[in-house]
Amino acid sequence: MLGPTPHSRRFALTSGKIPVTRSTVKSGWNHPVVARACRCINVALFVSHDLRRNVEIEIVQILGDTVESVLFGGASLRRVTPDERSIAFFLLKASNTLLDLDVGGQTTLPNGIVVAKMRWEDMVGRLQGGRAVYVARGRSPRSVAVSCCGAVFLYEHEEGVFADHLEAMPVPRPAHPERFILDVNLGCDSAQFGAHLLQTC
After folding, report:
1. CB 58 within 8 A of CB 91
2. What pLDDT shows up at residue 187?
3. Which of 32, 14, 43, 9 is nearest to 181 (CA)?
4. What is the pLDDT of residues 67-84, one digit of tens each?
5. How many domains does the chain have?
């Protein structure tokens, strides 16, 4: 299943349909939404000469009552490099695979990326999944103590899409999701998450 592994932290980034196409990937002129998704995946997973093996990032595409998920997991990812073109190419492969999936279907690509299609309410249940959920909220307190291990960190393109239906604790919301991911990773790495967020908001 797609639930977070016991000792990983997962970033969940919501959006509408990611507009990735073969022509834009080949030319390198990706749509801003695609470029942002690529930057988020890069910041979440890649460190110098390696991957964050204890981190996962899920791109959650909301299409009405249906949700399409593309999950990059540091523990299982293979043959993906940190440049935008490489990540966009694998987003394209995931998008093409999703076309053939029925609702409730899930498959793992040869490079370890997991794609799934599900109902909106199933995604709500899976995000919670018995785990601590922290949601980026503009009206959140300026610092908060968090449990990094096994937690889900949710950044919604529209606040409240999922979070209003979850038991989620608010954490500060930067203007851009890639900054949110960077702050969480740095804070969890240093075990001083609350103080770090206080300094960067």
Report:
1. no
2. 86
3. 43
4. 999 999 999 999 889 999
5. 1
Task: Provide DSSP, the chain.
Answer: --SPPTT-EEEEEEES-----HHHHHHT---HHHHHHHHHHHHHHEETTEE-TTEEEEEEEEETTEEEEEEEETTT--S--SSHHHHHHHHHHHHHHHHTPPTT-EEE-TTS-EEEEEEHHHHHHHHHTTS-EEEEETTS-S------TT-EEEE-SSTTTTGGGS-EEEEE--SSHHHHHHHHHHHHHHT-HHHHHHHH-
What interhelical angle do 84-99 and 32-45 show, nearest 10?
110
CATH code (residue 169): 3.40.1280.10
- Is residue 155 in a domain? yes
Any domain includes 96: yes
CB-based contacts of 99, cutoff 8 Å, min separation 6: none
What is the rounded average pLDDT of the residues 53-79? 95
Residue 145: the pLDDT is 75
Specify if 132 maps to a domain: yes
- How crowded is residue 90: how many other Cβ atoms within 10 Å of its Cβ? 23
Total-model pTM:
0.90
Rounded distance, CA 55 to CA 114, Å?
A: 14
Write out the residue range of the structural domain in which residue 108 sits.
9-200
Q: Is residue 41 part of a domain?
A: yes
Q: Which of 85, 96, 93, 98 is nearest to 110 (CA)?
A: 93
